[in-house]
Write a structure and sequence with these properties.
The chain is of the alpha+beta class and 329 residues long. The chain has seven helices and 16 strands.
Length: 329
Amino acid sequence: MPPTKEPIFHVAEEQAKKTIAAALRVWLADQSWSQIRQLLRSRRVMVDGNICVDEGRRLNLNEVVKIIAQSAPRPPDARDVKLQYLDAYVCVVEKPAGVTSNRHADERDWPAKRKQLQPTLDELLAHVVAKMDPRARQLRGVPPPVRAVHRLDRETSGLMVFARTPTAERHLADQFRKHTTERCYLAVAPGKLSAQRIQSRLIRDRGDGRRGSTKESHLGKHAVTHIKPLKHLKHPSGEVYTLLECRLETGRTHQIRIHLAELGHPLCGERVYHQPLFGKALHDPSGAPRVALHARSLAFDHPISGERMGFEMPLPQDLQEFLATFRPL
C-alpha cells in the first residue's frame, strides 16, 4: 500500500459485527493476514476517528475506517497521568488525550493481554494511586479500583474526578446527575461565533448511526451548552476561527461536539460530527492534531466533607502549539 494514500472505508451491513482484521482483509485484498496485523500494530488504522490496534475489535454499521499514512504517536501510559488531588475518597486527575476514560461494559471480561493493547484511564490511574497511597494494598498485583463517575471522550484532554469508595461514588454520581457540578471547557471552532445558549434533545441515533439532536420533544435527553467567545483568530489559510469557553448546564455524551457541529461550526479536528446528516462533510484546514476540546476546570462538593472543591488545568502542549499557529483577528 503506498504510504501517501489514506483509504477510507464505510462499514456496510456485510462488515457489521465482523472484526476489524476480517474487514480489512476484504477491503485490502492484496494484503496478507500478517500485513493486516502489522497495519493495526503500527497504529495506522482509525475507526470513527480513534486509533485501533485491537484486531478483535468488532465493527458497527456506518462506522468509518481510515488507513493513515503515518503511524500515530504512542498511546498515553501511567507516565502521562498526573494527579492534582488525592485523598481516601476521591482523586482528581489530568486526563491526557488519546486514552479512554473507562472500559465499556462489553470489554470488562476481556483477557488482560487484550486490555493492555489500549489501557483505559481508570486502569492506569489505579496503579498510579496505589504507588502514591500506601493504604491502597494490592491483591495479587492488582490495585484497588478507582470508580469513574463521568467521562471525557478519548481525544479530549482535561480534568476528571474519580471515586475511591462506593460511598464517594454514590455522592459524586448524584451531583453529576443533578448537574450541581461545574465544568468549563476550552474549544476551537471555525467561524466567528457569538455568545449564546444552545439547547436541544440528544438521541443515540440521528439516522446514520451517530448521536444528534431531534425535534421530537418526547425523545432523547435535554441538553444545554453555554458558549462564549474568548478570542477571534486568523489561520494562515486565511480562515477565521474562535477560541471558545463552553460551559455545560447538562452533561450528555458528545454534547459540546454535537451542539457546535449542528450550529455549523464543528470543532477543529472533528472526525465524527463534521459530516452533517444531510450534505457534504465540512472542510477543516486548521491542521488540529486532534479534537480541539479541553476540560479546563472542574468543581464539585467533596462527597464526605461537603466542602466545595475547584480545580483548573492549563492547555496541554499539543493544543498550545496548535493555537500558536493562529494570530489575533
